[in-house]
Structures
1.
Amino acid sequence: TEACLTAIEGADALGAFVHKTPEIALEQARAADARIQEGDAPSMCGIPMGIKDLFCTKGVPSQAASGILKGFKPEYESTVTSQLFDAGAVMLGKLNMDEFAMGSSNETSVYGNAVNPWRRGNDDAALTPGGSSGGSASAVAADLCLAATGTDTGGSIRQPAAFTGITGIKPTYGRCSRWGIIAFASSLDQAGPMTKDVRDAAIVLGAMCGHDPRDSTSVDLPVPDFESMLTGDIRGKAIGIPREYRMDGMPAEIDALWDQGRDMLRDAGARIVDISLPHTKYALPTYYVIAPAEASSNLARYDGVRYGHRATLASGEGINDMYEKTRAEGFGPEVQRRVMVGTYVLSAGFYDAYYNRARKVRTLIKRDFEQAFATGVDAILTPATPSAAFGLGELQDADPVQMYLNDVFTVTVNLAGLPGISVPAGLDKQGLPLGLQLIGRPWEEGDLLNTAYALE
Ligand code: GLN
């Protein structure tokens, strides 16, 4: 813990930690030492972690990297963080992210962007660590902590993991409790660990997940000992290669890496099968209707009355002015865009044409996966992202759709509620890390982690 706290002090330029909690960390570390001495060391005992700013941490600022939650210190602890602390984990501080987890580059944060510790060859230009869990990815990649929490609504664990050469798993929807995690799109949001390798991911995930009666979508299933399932034996497993993920214009390097991953799994004894997920091309538009719709509803609570920021009113201004001014000042441009898109697709005149249509297509996307798994496929291998990390500012000022295209391989997994993991798979010719994604059957994170372990 002390080594991490020192490293964090020297790494402000990365912008990974937005709120440091050294006193809490040292107190938790001392308690962990005492537990070890008593011979009662649970799985996370004494492990220093960073916590994404989307998790409510009791008495500690939790702002979802938004101006509207300025000054908000929750009265309660999220289920995931409280389980981690019960298992002995140590909190070093809160980690940077895109505002309300909306983004793929950590550039929508009210705190400013986080920076990727990697560079292109000898080029000094700063790169994005990805998003929305950019601070988490940057902190783990730069050894500021041993693991971090992330959340993934459309790829926010897996894309930043791929951009920074680390491992990140989004479990099956319902595996981790959403209680106390600031909501973005409730039917898609899932928490998960971001770690150095698959074994660490197995250990941290085991501590994060489990049934929680306070989240009605949390599933009451036993949590297996994921770590003990890492045998590396994948003989006889069927790995699907979805043909629709081979996209036009994808860099040849990513194609080559994907083939290399396939060959590694084949050499380890897996059977490779070509599969089709025909509705893949509708995934991005479907996601960018459903996620903003749910966000516009979830974000309605930030009205200047109950939490955080409240605008100062001029004399004669009333409560409607207060709502309007507060929201205009407190939300950044990307969040405002999502709220507008969301209210539009949910409005009486357009509900059927957009929101309801998107829900139907979501079912078709889910069915594609069910059909693939029904033919005996155990896991699906795809690239994690369509490119390596890009430069800060490169996409932020472009058409927002360019940024949304980052999610092309990851959003399908959230729409279908499946577990997905990104593992480092090699470097591109500029020396930047690239990731491969494995998608598993629902509730089979143990098997998925084991297949990923064989790719390491
Ligand atoms: N980049 C996607 C978005 O902006 C995904 C974000 C996430 O997974 N939280 O919505």
2.
Amino acid sequence: MITIKNLHKKFKKLHALNDVSASFSRGQVVSLIGPNGSGKTTLIKSILGIVKPDAGSILFAGKSIDKQVAYRDNIGYMPQIGRYPDNMKIGQVIEMVKNIRNHKDGTLDDELFFDFKMDEMQDKNMRSLSGGTRQKVSAVLAFLFNPDVLILDEPTAGLDPLASEILKDKIIKEKKKGKLILITSHVLSDLDELTTDVMYLQDGKLHLYQTVENIKQQTGETRLEKAI
Ligand code: ADP
């Protein structure tokens, strides 16, 4: 569904992405891991079209993203820190996003909205929200338009254990429906049950891109956090 070829991105002398190539297909949950500054966010933002690579190409459904605008409507993005107007209520933010975003087939996916009990919190002001509730709003928005691709940047950071479980269950369900899900996280133990593939970046280079099954087999470990 997404193919990236020989991506390079430099910020002055710093090589944030150094010849990164990979393909992602439906039904994959890819965990993008690596130390701080290894290029994870730059890679995600390149796929989202927010960062323009210096060289290389990104194809979405076989066509270069430079030649299509609407592909973004098919990607749900949960940023590390969602920024929303302070003076709006949760319900208003969700309505606003519904009104301004095009979506492919009109189906809304409001399962997380109810699972997170957002219907009881609609009147809360964004300014008064805890980090965790803000994360829930970001998650609801990422899944809202039933996209084929989900890009989740540190999705469980700041979520309480129950909310983390709800989100993980949702990710597993979406994977089974054939969605492609890319996740960055520091907490490998959080990813173990979800992940099909691990992509490890270091200094902008792709050091490893393998199925979890292979990694576990090769290392003889049964838990991902021990195997990496
Ligand atoms: P990660 O998400 O793995 O922590 P990033 O992709 O955010 O890594 O960053 C990779 C490198 O590129 C880091 O050294 C970071 O400081 C640098 N970088 C990222 N964005 C910018 C930018 N807009 N301007 C300058 N340097 C940047």
